[in-house]
Automatic annotation (TrEMBL):
<keyword id="KW-0175">Coiled coil</keyword>
<dbReference type="InterPro" id="IPR043504">
    <property type="entry name" value="Peptidase_S1_PA_chymotrypsin"/>
</dbReference>
<dbReference type="InterPro" id="IPR009003">
    <property type="entry name" value="Peptidase_S1_PA"/>
</dbReference>
<feature type="coiled-coil region">
    <location>
        <begin position="52"/>
        <end position="105"/>
    </location>
</feature>
<protein>
    <recommendedName>
        <fullName>Peptidase S1 domain-containing protein</fullName>
    </recommendedName>
</protein>
Length: 397
């Protein structure tokens, strides 16, 4: 693709379904009560977790202030700040226990037996939305079934409901399945923090047991769909983090969109590739901040000084600046690694933008993955390093 293409997002509104009883597979037009329940539980947990994240923000600020005081402050100021940090850490431990108990209650209420859940998830990920008239799928923890929404407007000529019911009945004979026809499905992504389908760069993601970050770009690796993000967004210190969710972890796992496959956390790259395991579609595009997205048309190994660049992140949504030093570096005290990076003139990013996309203002080139920011500016890992460190990645097919 050589020209800029903008896709405006809209709600795909389809007529209500008719219930068609079939012996082996349940067919229903009712709302997906399982996902509604999941949303309610997620909101409940998030409310309980608010004090925890507020304290975590205070801790981050205090630790940053401590570094400044260690360089320029008095010993008394350093001691006071360290005391504050220790108190915040103790508070976080207590708050985390409260959240964990709330999570346990929810999981006990809605959990699916592991063997059945694995079968349902495997079946869900095996459904090809491009070759079949499937508008969306979900696993209902409340009903313990795989829900498949079919769009009759996409039926092959000469094939009716009975044909597709029989097809799925034969294919998934060993699991409970509910088929629904013509249920309104939102082609969403009306904001970086929304539940997005299709997946695009710059939207909010969260790895298990991590804070939220951003998706850089949906991209294939050796023919498998997935997406890029920053390594520090998904690495728990052991070199892996199994599950990635969008927009956030929902405590029941229903928002899961991928499994971490590659973590490249070294001097060349703060980057990771996630194998997309969900039913969402994806676009090789980035959120542009205006209820639409921009397709990526090419890739720039490392931009030159003065290049106008855009950052697409879950916190900032969209920001712009220019490249200051294309051969800079930044130090992460958590890993002890100094990373090769491109430095921009201004610090235009914020917490949660990590893992987001940097693109060329003028040409829709993908330039790299957001890594960090400080008083000097914002840093991103250049595409040439990402490409070398995640062997086999390339444009979506």
């Amino acid at each position: 693709m050589t020209s800029k293409t903008k896709i405006s997002l809209a709600l795909v509104a389809i007529a209500a379904a008719i219930i068609l009883p079939v012996s082996a597979i349940s067919i229903d037009a009712a709302p997906d009560t399982g996902n509604n329940a999941a949303l309610a539980e997620t909101e409940r947990i998030n409310k309980i977790a608010e004090p925890y994240f507020a304290a975590k923000d205070q801790l981050n600020r205090a630790e940053f202030e401590l570094k400044t005081l260690q360089a320029n402050g008095t010993s008394a100021q350093v001691s006071d700040k360290q005391t504050q940090i220790d108190q915040l850490k103790d508070e976080l431990v207590s708050l985390k226990k409260i959240i964990a108990e709330a999570e346990r209650e929810t999981i006990e209420k809605y959990k699916i037996e592991p063997i059945l859940e694995k079968k349902l998830r495997t079946a869900q990920s095996s459904i090809d939305h491009k070759d079949l008239p499937v508008s969306s799928t979900s696993v209902s923890g409340l009903e313990k079934v795989l829900i498949i929404n079919l769009d009759e407007s996409r039926f092959e000529e000469g094939k009716d409901r009975a044909y597709y019911v029989a097809l799925f009945e034969e294919r998934f004979s060993d699991i409970p399945v509910k088929i629904r026809f013509n249920v309104a499905v939102a082609e969403s992504c009306n904001g970086v923090g929304s539940n997005c389908d299709p997946l695009v760069g710059g939207i909010k993601i969260e790895a298990k047991n991590h804070g939220y970050c951003s998706m850089a770009l949906p991209i294939e690796r050796n023919g498998v769909d997935g997406f890029l993000t920053a390594a520090h967004c998904v690495d728990d210190g052991s070199g892996s983090a199994d599950d990635v969710f969008q927009p956030t972890e929902d405590w029941l796992g229903w928002n899961k969109v991928g499994d971490v496959s590659i973590i490249a956390d070294n001097a060349d790259c703060d980057c990771a590739w996630v194998d997309q395991s969900s039913s969402e579609t994806n676009e090789e595009a980035v959120w542009d901040g205006y209820n639409s997205w921009e397709y990526i048309t090419s890739y720039n190994n490392r931009p030159t000084s003065g290049t106008y660049v855009l950052v697409h992140g879950a916190t900032s949504s969209l920001g712009w600046t220019t490249v200051d030093d294309p051969n800079s570096s930044w130090y992460n005290p958590d890993t002890g690694i100094t990373y090769d990076a491109v430095l921009t003139v201004a610090h235009v990013t914020a917490g949660g933008d990590s893992g987001g996309a940097w693109t060329n203002w003028d040409s829709d080139e993908f330039m790299g993955i957001h890594a960090a920011g400080d008083s000097a500016g914002s840093y991103f890992t250049p595409w040439e390093n990402v490409n070398d460190s995640t062997t086999g990645v390339g444009p979506l097919g």
